[in-house]
Amino acid sequence: MGKLNSKQVENLAEAGTYDDGDGLRLIVKASGSKSWVFRYQFQGKRRDMGLGGFPAITLKAARLAVADQRRLMSAGTDPMTARDAERERQQEAQRREAQRVTFKQEAAGYIATHRAGWKNAKHAQQWENTLATYAMPIIGHLSPAEISTAHVMDILRPIWAEKTETASRVRNRIELVLDAAKAQGLRDGENPARWRGHLDKLLPKRAMVQMRVHHAALPWPKLPAFMIDLAKHDGLTYRAICLTILTACRTSEVLEATWSEIDLESRTWTIPASRMKGHKEHRVPLSEATLDVLASLPRIEGSPYLFPGARQGRPLSNMAMLMGLRRMGCGDLTMHGFRSTFRDWAAEKTHYPREVCELALAHTVATGAEAAYWRGDVFEKRRALMADWAAYTTTSPAANIIQGDFKRA
Predict the structure, then answer these.
(1) I want to staple 315 with a disulfide (CB 3.0 to 4.6 A). Which of 195, 222, 228, 305 is the partner?
(2) What whole-number distance in Å separates Cα of residue 52 and Cα of residue 61?
(3) What's domain 103-209's architecture?
């Protein structure tokens, strides 16, 4: 019969060692924590073996554990040696299990888990594409535990100077996948894709090798002629291009626009925060030319989108406008570049304040304490700016180029 009882064990508060008998001891620390220790002697050596903490391990469970260890000793086995061997066996089993999971599988799981938290499907697609192109040929077949710094360097070194932004994103994505693998017990130690304090010692800083690459933009003096050419092309893709230019919005903001966001009476398009890069609602004033484009769009039953795509319940793809530019013979341009065209025109040909022009692009115009006082969006001033922009883009000395299918009946 042991010397302790359950009530005593629960109430003991004074730091010290309390003997239950048969080698079982309860250690109470000054912090109040309690743990069980089995003290025994094997082959002339006295040893202390931890059995776990109270209350996770009860008095009864601790006594049963001591009885188990005594049986091992009777069979000529050191309990601590047996425990260490069992731990090693379990760890080896875990290592073998971890090696069955490849980086490709772990990356797919990471993307599936985080997809719901990403703003749009395009982000998940970018993850899949960049990892498939650059990482998978080298580490896709390896387990997370097998991936080393040398592997990561083999991925990054060929593209670090020429495709610095892409390389940086690939590195970050590998790092996140390997961090997730570590959290699941699939690898240990330093993350070989970590930048600070690791890869920054092996690769030059991005700023040292990266020449800023701007989105190819059309010079603003050439825009009216481009718009005349654009009006010669029919179809949703070209109307989407036109609306994107007239509103100075981002491609995804236009393609994913729904009719519920458009208020024709107030001539306002309200893009919800969930679709904005800055996660802040953005109101777009609709000029006469923009209303002409909207009036020309067909309403497709069952689709909420201004620009419904071929797939049921989906808008035009992100590549639609880019392919439209290529068909026009303007493959050197990007849709995002038209935002630069707008900004350059506003700076060089108008007297609108910088804040008005930046807010038209949904850019942040204040930070820190200043931002607390900047609550408005200067909407009426932006309405005037966008009307002037529409007049410039849709009017040339020769003709008004919002015509034909782009003109309201």
Answers:
(1) 305
(2) 10
(3) Orthogonal Bundle (1.10)
56-104 pLDDT tens trace: 999 899 999 989 889 988 888 888 888 888 888 887 776 666 567 899 9
Ramachandran bin of 211, using left for φ above 0, alpha for ψ from -120 to 50, beta for the remaining angles: beta
**Tens of pLDDT, residues 299-328:** 888 889 999 988 888 899 888 999 999 999
Class of domain 220-406 as given by CATH: mainly alpha
Q: If we measure between CA atoms, which residue out of 37, 36, 4, 30 comes closest to residue 15? A: 30
Domain boundaries, the chain: 6-98, 103-209, 220-406
The CATH number of domain 6-98 is 3.30.70.1520: no
Measure the CA–CA gap between 375 and 288, rounded to whole angstroms.
Answer: 27
Full DSSP string of 152-198: HHHHHTTTTTTSHHHHHHHHHHHHHHHHHHHHTTS--S--TT-TTTT
- Please give the DSSP secondary-structure letter assigned to residue 45: E
Retrieve residue 281's tokens. 């609602």
Query: d(Cα 92, Cα 315) in Å, to the nearest integer?
Result: 50
